[in-house]
Amino acid sequence: MHYKQLFELRIIHEYYQNQICPDFRLEPTAECQHILSGYRLIMKNQVNGIVVIAPVDSESKPWIELAENLQFSFILKLKNEEFIDFTELDWKPVNNVIYQFTNKNHIEVSDLETNKTKFSDRKLPKGKNIFGIVDIYHSSSKSQLLDSGGEYKITFKAKKQRWYYYLLADREINGDEFLIKDKDTTRKTEIKFTRFASTEAEKTDSIFSRLQQQFPQAQQYLFISDSEIACQQVGIKNIQLLKNKKSENSNSVVWIEHLPNPPNYNGIQVINALKYL
């Protein structure tokens, strides 16, 4: 028996270097499983989606003629709890409301639309980590010959946020000489940081007050990126902590060659420069 692809669904995320998003598992609803079984269709899981194949004859026609505008529905379950931290989302699925991804209004378009739907309205089985539901409407015009199956995709964008570096330095050192510089000359856009002394931020910044209690002997400084930075799977290197020497005509000293990237969930990183003295 020969099989050919009826359709494929891929989940794309710009956070990942190869854009392949492995953070979800797709499961057919009970109704969808009934359709798959009835037409002898097979669903195969992929790293970032699924492919549905159909048995075909010598002319690449399905063995069982497919009905017009079949609706295939799949439950989208989240496997990676950190997905929310690095993904740009309009809202987080809560309680009775989840995402709906569908091509209902534009059957010939591969990019699925994003909407909201109620968990209860879809009569979904109770379970954890249900992020959404995917509805793929397969046009009857595509079911006559399966020389090329339908291709659909869900695309997520990486979250963007400003980076905050809190620097703890020795009080005997002139903290104004500390700088954070992007030393990667191959980057299209330089990542720039503005420095704020503790006197400028301590009145309104709760993190400053906590650090003062924990490190009373240290001088604190805050560096904030001038622009928002997109989260990405591969860390951004060559963000350096520099200290200018007091003498004239002296080059800056690199204290930390590659500053750790702030965590995706809040964009905040504390740097203890005391240990580099």
Helix content: under 10%
Point out poorly predicted stretches. none
- The beta-strand count equals 18
How many DSSP H or I helices?
3
The overall pLDDT, averaged over residues, is: 88
Straight-line N-to-C gap: 71 Å
Biggest β-sheet: count, sense, barrel? 5 strands, mixed
Task: Order the strands across the largest sheet as they lie in space.
Answer: 2-5-8-6-7
User: What best-fitting shape do the alpha-carbon axes yield?
Assistant: elongated
Strand content: 35-45%
Overview of this protein structure:
The protein is mainly beta. It is built from three helices and 18 strands. The protein has helices at residues 30-38, 198-201, 206-214; strands at 2-13, 24-28, 42-46, 49-56, 70-78, 97-102, 113-118, 130-138, 150-156, 160-161, 164-170, 178-182, 193-197, 218-225, 229-230, 239-243, 253-256, 268-272. The strands form five sheets. It has a five-stranded mixed β-sheet. Strands 3-4-1-9 form a four-stranded mixed β-sheet, with no helix packed on it. It is elongated and about 80 Å long.
Keywords:
single chain; 277 residues; mainly beta; five-stranded mixed β-sheet; four-stranded mixed β-sheet; 3 helices
What would you say about this model in short?
This protein has 277 residues and is mainly beta. 8% of the residues lie in helices and 40% in strands.
Secondary structure layout:
Blueprint: E1 2-13, E2 24-28, H1 30-38, E3 42-46, E4 49-56, E5 70-78, E6 97-102, E7 113-118, E8 130-138, E9 150-156, E10 160-161, E11 164-170, E12 178-182, E13 193-197, H2 198-201, H3 206-214, E14 218-225, E15 229-230, E16 239-243, E17 253-256, E18 268-272
Parallel strand pairs: 1-9, 6-8, 11-18
Antiparallel strand pairs: 1-4, 2-5, 3-4, 5-8, 6-7, 10-15, 11-14, 12-16, 13-14, 16-17
